[in-house]
Amino acid sequence: MPLTLNEDSLIEKLVPDPSQVPGLKMRIGWLGKSSRRKYWRLYLTPELNSYLEFREEDIVHTLSMASDMNPLGGTTVFLKREAELLHTRTTSTQAQAEWLGGDIMRRHLRRTGISGLLAPGGGPVGIFPTVFVTTTIIIVVVITLVVCDGDGDGGDGGGPTFTLSPNTVCEGGGGPGSC
After folding, report:
1. pLDDT tens digit string along 25-74?
2. Residues 151, 135 contacting (CB under 8 angstroms)
3. Where are the domains of the chain?
């Protein structure tokens, strides 16, 4: 009896031509709309306080993770390798009422016309405002690795010298740029 093999449906969708395997990024989370046109978000936490944002055209394939064993669901997103991912984290911080009871708070509340919220001493009455801070992290790392032969003559004497800097440095050579 001959062995019958079937290609996985995911591979069938991601690699239609086996001679050209695409470069991909895979991320897992909860897929949602972005506030920007033709962009999507992938929320990375159930608290929805961290998400990736990317262009719709960079999505190669999505795979739902919803099942009886996974009631929260989620989505696996396959993106083009060169896709730019914008990572945003939102945190909530409770400010203490004592901090809000000073002169600055009193002046600003009076300007807004809601000074009735001030207690007789000038502090807020039962207010614990939540301050939302959104942080967008974009990290660009450029590393230049320069290998020199150590003595600057192109041979193998002296052993290699490595540097991670914009200038080329050689031990025993003529200084920066002499390799």
Report:
1. 999 999 999 999 999 999 999 999 999 999 999 999 999 999 999 889 99
2. no
3. 9-90, 95-132, 141-179
